[in-house]
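User: Can you help me understand a structure? I only have the sequence.
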Amino acid sequence: MRMFSSKATNIFVSLLFFAAVSGASEYLIELEKRSSESTERNHLFVHAATLASRINQEVNSTLNLVLGIMIYVVENPDITQAQFAKIAGRIVPRAPYILNVALAKDNVISHVHPMEINEKVLGLRYMELPEQREAVLRAIESRNIVIAGPVDLVQGGQGFISRIPVFLDDGAYWGLVSLVIRMDVFLEKTGVTESDRHLNIALRGKNATGAAGEVFYGDPAIFDSPEAVLQTVPLPVGGWQLGVTFGAEPGTALNVPILRARGWFVAALFSAMMFLMLQTVSALRRANEQAKLADENKNRFFANMAHELRTPMSAIAGAIGLIKHFTAQKKYEEIDELMNNAERNCDRLKWIINDILDLKKIESGRMEYDMQRWPFRSLVAEAVEGMTHYADQHNIHIRLDDSTCSDCVVECDRQRIQQVLFNLLSNAVKFSQRGTTVNVSMTSRDKVVRLEVRDTGPGVPDDKVEEVFSEFAHMNRAKNSMVASTGLGLAISKRIIVDHHGRIGCANHKEGGCTFYFELGLAE
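Assistant: Let's start by predicting it. Here is the structure, written out as tokens:
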């Protein structure tokens, strides 16, 4: 249970470490995300400001070109088509998006350049066109340049129309200088369509009405986006508004899922390393504790061994001394009893030595077995019979229930299985209350035979049940013993049963007593 608890604690600590590292990773990702978003926002602002500046600069440059025509008309109100064409012919090539330049005396187009593709606009009366009348009136009233559109051009496509009112020196209104700009070429020249490949761009403010005007280029939803950067493009009268957002994959955007996956991987890696380190520390601690326990058990074993050896040796030495004394006095009856006592203590020494030799064989892996087929019931009956005299000395009765397993045959080393039976029976007799019965029973099921030996003793301490079959684990369940008790018998018995591919164990009973058992496979 302690090992499980330690492992569970290590897992819990490792999970906490994983959570901490993952949390730190998420925090760093969030910081980087905010930094990236701020950087993207700055880049977007620079893009938007640059585009707005280009548009404004191109508009002003174009208007400055045609201001010279207005000045010439003021000085020469009776300008001819030839004169106009000569002046306009110098202006149009400088701006590829200018479709034509026209003069509208009294708001009726009277001059146009170039004539070849724009001849059909001659005679166009602005005041009779509802879609152009308002812009003309704004220009006259404001006495400033008014840019209308985009509008559908007579020549095809869409364009902006810039109208400059012309007032003579005496203040009389002469007419308009009209400049038609192709919208698609103008947007390409200012870089709007080029930037549109990786940005989402929109323009609104038809007829120079600013943010309140209609969207005339791009997706109107851009202006509703919280990520959009808005820039005002001022015009001589009114203006436009530019809206810009990044496309689906901005160049500086973070790949958060990949960063998060990397963070989790690092967290899992470090957590696994933490778990392995904790497990190693726990294993070293357990190994140290086990080493200390083994050292303590060995110390107890050798102390107990010294006592166990000293007791029969002292008894034998005492018996020999008394034998000499009684021999000299020729008291032969007393000598017989002393000889029997010496013989019993010699048997105790023999069992102690045999246990030590068997332990040595187990540790060196040299335990050998003579495997043969034997009737299981006869093996048990023989062991019970051999233990009867020892049980009588303790006023203990051994009852064998051999009504089952009459035909059970096991393949085993007869001597070693007898050794196991003797260990279990002698322990049961030794720890049972005088005048009680040790019950021995056999059952078979699923090709397995099971032997149980139940005593009437105090049982095995609950905290020692798992250790009772360990080497040097002497339980000291009884204070007095007539047989050798090295603490090795059960450990040796377990090794013998395991080498026979069997199972051995014990269980306490609530009403008192303990049952030791082992199981062996039946012979084919």
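Now, to help you interpret it: DSSP finds eleven helices and 16 strands in the chain. Residues 26 and 260 are 7 Å apart (CA to CA). Let me know which part you'd like to focus on.
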